[in-house]
Amino acid sequence: xxxxxxxxxxxxxxxxxxxxxxxxxxxxxxxxxxxxxxxxxxxxxxxxxxxxxxxxxxxxxxxxxxxxxxxxxxxxxxxxxxxxxxxxxxxxxxxxxxxxxxxxxxxxxxxxxxxxxxxxxxxxxxxxxxxxxxxxxxxxxxxxxxxxxxxxxxxxxxxxxxxxxxxxxxxxxxxxxxxxxxxxxxxxxxxxxxxxxxxxxxxxxxxxxxxxxxxxxxxxxxxxxxxxxxxxxxxxxxxxxxxxxxxxxxxxxxxxxxxxxxxxxxxxxxxxxxxxxxxxxxxxxxxxxxxxxxxxxxxxxxxx
Length: 304
What we know:
Blueprint: H1 9-40, H2 56-81, E1 92-99, E2 102-107, E3 112-113, E4 116-119, E5 123-130, E6 135-139, E7 144-148, E8 154-159, E9 164-170, E10 183-188, H3 190-198, H4 209-217, E11 242-247, E12 250-255, H5 258-266, E13 272-273, H6 290-301
Parallel strand pairs: 1-5, 4-10
Antiparallel strand pairs: 1-2, 2-3, 5-8, 6-7, 6-9, 9-10, 11-12, 11-13
Helix pairs in contact: 1-2, 4-6
């Protein structure tokens, strides 16, 4: 009845069914009770109101029964939640990074991807990091969700029990393109996962280092290279062009040189291109190295 794609499905679904079942019983009982008392004590049958006296037994009854029911529901909720916070020692460690508006997953051997690959029937621990705002990594099919908070090293774990692909969503509103922050978890047979894990990271031989750096950081979630606009301006024709930017509430014109690009990465909200939203791009201080910035600049120079 409760078989699912992860080891947590049974406990979580059972807790939900118990709580919904009890709520449904109360909904039906209270509704019929309202109807019954409305008919029995209507004004036509009782034109003169009569005061009621206290009923100690009834008061004890409606205090004790709800308390028992709350503890009953708590038991099932705790039974489903406790395994989620008991991390196996032999779990595979994967770093998940959330940023506006994309996910990236990095493995212990340095391999990374925008899709989460895991082996079947193996415990997987996800170490959660945010580069900007609060996100929430949510895998509905696995019944797991955990907030990804800047400055807090949160974590979650699961064991996938069915092969296939499952959606990954962000369950915390994180800005303009929150609904686009989607990915997938791909559950593979152990042999296939081992082969994938040990295979050298596939790199587009035609791609420049700067292009790869931007994909890894997640720049492509907000900027394009073909001239079209997303949340931020396109990189096409950027280098060497004159840009109207807003500085301290005033519009000024600046040249998009190397210093401009560096400042746009390190302190993006100090010069916001006119016509684009403010305070959207986070400050990439520790997330991007000086070498990666140089590579990005060299790549942008080619986008004429």
